[in-house]
Amino acid sequence: MTNSCCSTEETSCDASQKHLVIIGGGSAAFAAAIKASSLGAKVTLINEGLPIGGTCVNVGCIPSKAMIRAAEAHYHASHPRFDGITSTGQVTDFGAVTAQTRHLVEELRQKKYLDVVADLPDFRMVQGRARLVNERTVAVNGEQISADRILLATGVSTQLPSVEGLADSGYLTNETLFELNELPESVIVLGGRYIALELGQMLQRLGSKVTILQRSKRIIPDEAQELTDTLTEFLRDEGIKIETGVHIDHVRRDKGRVAIEAQVDGEARLFTASHLLVATGRRANTQDMGLEALGVALDANGHVIVSDALETNAPTIYAAGDVVGEPLYVYTAAYEGALAAENALTDASRKRDYTALPWVMFTDPQVAGVGLDEKQAEQLGIQAEATTLPLDQVPRCVAARDTRGFVTLIREVPTDKIIGARILAPEGSELTMEISLAIKYGVTATELASSFHPYLTLSEAIKLAAITFRKDVGKLSCCAV
Predict the structure, then answer these.
(1) What mean pLDDT is predicted for residues 255-277?
(2) Using alpha carbons only, how large is the chain's radius of gyration in Å?
(3) How many beta carbons lie within 10 A of that of residue 144, not counting itself?
(4) Of 91, 105, 292, 441, which has the highest C-beta tally within 10 A?
(5) pLDDT digit string (tens) for 338-348?
(6) Is the model's pLDDT at 129 over the cut of 50?
């Protein structure tokens, strides 16, 4: 193992020295560089745009989760759930919060990226715009670099919707929000998925007045309505305004404020705020790289089309990470980067496997999942059954005076094997790995229900949810099975 945050387990392979050119500087690129080096290859990494580390460390996972934790600390200090306790929190210096976050970003960029590759043999890093000359040659800064294989790992960036006036509105994105030194008085957030909801709740908790405008009829519309409706209620209880079914007609600046003219379910509405945050999706960074001239296949959103072995339709060119599309997670990008490097340098064809992939949205309560939900199972022709355990049946949550949410387990009926889960719970992300391993190793609901789970832990929710396939846990005593 390496000490990189995006490290993956190494495999020993005999390979004569080959040259891998990697275009990109994020987790997929670094995992690929580390893997290629372990296979004895010469590596040239070319990066432009975001600093080394890419989205996650610079403008994504690290700064957002640090700021979300700061917002949680402030919010929970001001909202004690226990009788006899009065406390308050105060944001006295928003600039200090963002400055501390930026310091963390700089520290981790150095420690988990630059320091990791500093001593790799036959490794070179180039800062500049890369363009493919042919299937084995990359041009950068007037130099042409030849390679045996080329890996595209250029990631994604904010996708601006086509709205009149938006480009000139002075909007924020996740790439600029964390540079602010003053807390916005009010924020309109365009979007209703991961980034929009995480950052919207963070800003509301720190003291901004937040309005979320979502085009579809529900936030996170790909998930079950029970989950999205419940989360919507929780967010509105905190004062966040959520408007769905929104079609935006025009964006403009009016006396220093942003003004959005929109239709909500066919009714004309005007929304105003001091700031605008755009979180409406991501687009692949594949423009002006020479890919079209080489015939490298792209989809309608610019993502590189690859096989499950991360091969493009050009035999010497591979792609990995966010640039190939869903899933857009730092850990899947790292996994794909290492896999692509191995396949490229050893002529192997190992395939991606996301059967037991866990994912998290860091709202509070968190939304988390792994595997299939009931609708997805039905679409695949799987005879499935779902059971839902409300958190007021989980002793840990009752004792903590926080029973917001539920745990839903999905099993395949003929085999009793767990095939998925959806979770809405404070710190619900911590439950996903048990389910992920259960799916990977074919664990049944009966086996989960009979496994030891320490009393008054959140993980006991998994055991109790498994029990509900055959019993009403409300009629059982504590720890009873």
Answers:
(1) 95
(2) 24
(3) 11
(4) 105
(5) 999 999 999 89
(6) yes
State the Cα–Cα distance between residues 228 and 305, nearest whole angstrom: 31
CA distances, 362 to each of 33, 62, 329, 338 (Å): 29, 12, 13, 26
> How large a percentage of the chain has pLDDT more than 70?
96
Of 196, 249, 190, which is closest to residue 215 (Cα–Cα)?
190
Say which residues have a Cβ less than 8 Å from residue 387's Cβ, sequence separation at least 6. 408, 409, 411, 465, 468, 469
Using the structure block, give the residue that is written with the tokens 């990631």: 155
Written as one letter, the residue type at 185 is E
Could you identify the residue written with the tokens 């009752």? 398
Six-digit token string for 157: 């960036």
